[in-house]
């Protein structure tokens, strides 16, 4: 059964949850979650990424917390799981990972396929992507526009800097182990 009471501990994830049509299931978010303003205005604030109010999260009747490897603290994740609260930990390392994450969250939350259209609509409005007709009327292909390519080029160095910082914090051996583990998890997910 899909989660009905979600707490997001990452501002970008909060925004994605609203974009994919799951905003009505978000019961709490961090003090740094600002998008969409009209959506987060009514949500319970559960502290920051590094210092969430775990008891508040529990008392909300939360059945799913969404966290991130870089932004959240492992001990907090373990405490929440110890209380029986499911925690989905994200770790997008590249722009492509970030795009896959949107689909992963949609599948995790069983949002309907029309949410893809809602998710892509802001990118179309900003002229970052455009829709092309496929071989038949049922098929559409989404392609980057020139503006989209420029935006991607601006974003890529930020992703790479974040990845480099995390690699430095983890050390080479742990970084390689994490990469291997994530590859294994991705392969297992594709197989299921």
**The CATH homology group name of the largest domain:** Nitrogenase molybdenum iron protein domain
The fraction of residues assigned to DSSP E strands is 15-25%
Number of strands: 7
Describe the main β-sheet briefly. Answer: 5 strands, parallel
Named CATH topology of the largest domain: Rossmann fold
- What value does the Rg take, in angstroms? 18 Å
Q: What is the assembly state of the chains in this entry?
A: single chain
Q: For the terminal residues, how far apart are their CA atoms?
A: 17 Å
Order of helices and strands: EHEHEHEHEHHEEHH
Please tell me the total number of domains.
2
Describe this structure in words.
The protein is an alpha/beta fold and 192 residues long. It has 2 domains: 6-96, Rossmann fold, CATH 3.40.50.1980; 126-191, no CATH class. It has helices spanning 11-19, 37-40, 54-59, 74-82, 95-108, 114-125, 146-170, 172-191, and strands at 6-8, 26-29, 44-45, 64-68, 86-90, 129-133, 140-144. The strands form 2 sheets. It has a 5-stranded parallel sheet with strand order 3-2-1-4-5, with helices on both faces. It has a two-stranded antiparallel sheet with strand order 6-7. Strand 1 (6-8), helix 1 and strand 2 form a beta-alpha-beta unit. The longest helix has 25 residues, at 146-170.
